Task: inverse folding
């Protein structure tokens, strides 16, 4: 009887333990742990890593209760991080995902404004890239033109020297011709 009670007690512990462990490994608890990690990273000022952690939760656990918070935090951190690590295109994508959620009117309006501003920023980024490409092309063209002008200037100088030599020789020929005509006339 004592061994049966011990066996039942051990079985109860095993079943209770499995329940605890299976609960600890459930998607919602894993998502909650990842959210805690993301929060800790944000508190430490590691905004890029925190945004990545929130994005991970939002990507992997789209059906968890943590999803709306993870999407909003990822969008905020990607857009509000220091400029050196901000990722406007990622922020834009996460704000779009946030707008797809059922939101209160004020939250929806804030997200819509953020999406519009990020859209303009991304457009300006594209324009800046195009300006850099154009500037680089113009710089290359200017360097080619400068090299061509330098070669042309050098060639003009050579031709001017040849012209001076020809004029000098022509003057000598004229002088010789004048002397010959004077000696013939005598």
Result:
């Amino acid at each position: 009887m004592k061994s049966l009670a011990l066996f039942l007690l051990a079985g109860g512990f095993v079943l209770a333990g499995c329940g605890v462990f299976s609960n600890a490994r459930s998607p919602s608890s894993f998502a909650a742990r990842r959210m805690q990690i993301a929060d800790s990273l944000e508190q430490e000022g590691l905004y890029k890593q925190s945004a990545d952690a929130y994005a991970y939760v939002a990507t992997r656990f789209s059906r968890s209760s943590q999803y709306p918070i993870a999407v909003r935090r990822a969008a905020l951190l990607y857009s509000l991080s220091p400029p050196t690590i901000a990722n406007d295109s990622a922020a834009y994508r996460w704000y779009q995902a946030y707008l797809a959620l059922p939101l209160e009117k004020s939250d929806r309006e804030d997200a819509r404004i953020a999406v519009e501003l990020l859209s303009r920023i991304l457009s300006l980024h594209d324009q800046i890239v195009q300006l850099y490409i154009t500037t680089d092309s113009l710089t290359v063209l200017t360097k080619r033109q400068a090299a061509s002008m330098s070669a042309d200037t050098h060639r003009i100088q050579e031709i001017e020297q040849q012209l001076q030599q020809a004029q000098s020789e022509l003057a000598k020929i004229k002088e010789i011709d004048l002397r010959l005509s004077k000696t013939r006339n005598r």
Summary: Residues 24-102 form one domain. The mean pLDDT is 83.
